Amino acid sequence: MPHSKSHETPAQKIERLRETLRHHEHLYYVLDQPEITDAEYDAMMQELRKLEEAHPELITPDSPTQRVGGKPREGFVKVAHSSPMLSLDNALNEAELRDFDRRVRELLGGGHFRYVAELKLDGLSMAARYRDGVFVQAVTRGDGLVGEDVTENARTIRSLPLRVAGTEDTFETRGEALMNRKSFEKVNAEQEAQGKPRFANPRNAAAGALRALEPWVTASRKLDYQPYFLLKDGAAMEKSHWASLERLKEMGFKVNENRKLCADIEEGVAFCNEWEAKRDSLPYEIDGVVFKVDSVAQQERLGWTAKAPRWAIAYKFPPRQARTVVEDIRVQVGRTGALTPVAVLRPVDIGGVTVSRATLHNEDEVARLGLEIGDTVLVERSGDVIPKVVRVVHEGAQRRRFHMPAKCPECGSEVVREPGAVAWRCINVDCPARLKESVLHFASRGVMDIDGMGEVLVDQLVDRGLVKSVADLYELTVEDLAGLERMAEKSAKKVHANIQASRKRPLPRVLNGLGIPMVGERTAQILAGTFGSLDEIADAPLETLQEAEEVGPKVAEAIRSFFDEPRNRKLVERLRKAGLVFTHEKTPRKAAHAGPLAGKVFVLTGTLPNLAREEAKERIEAAGGKVTGSVSKKTSYVVVGDEPGSKLDKARELGIPTLNEEGLLDMLK
Ligand code: IVH
Question: Which of 82, 112, 560, 664 has its CA 20 to 30 A from that of 620?
Answer without folding.
Answer: 560
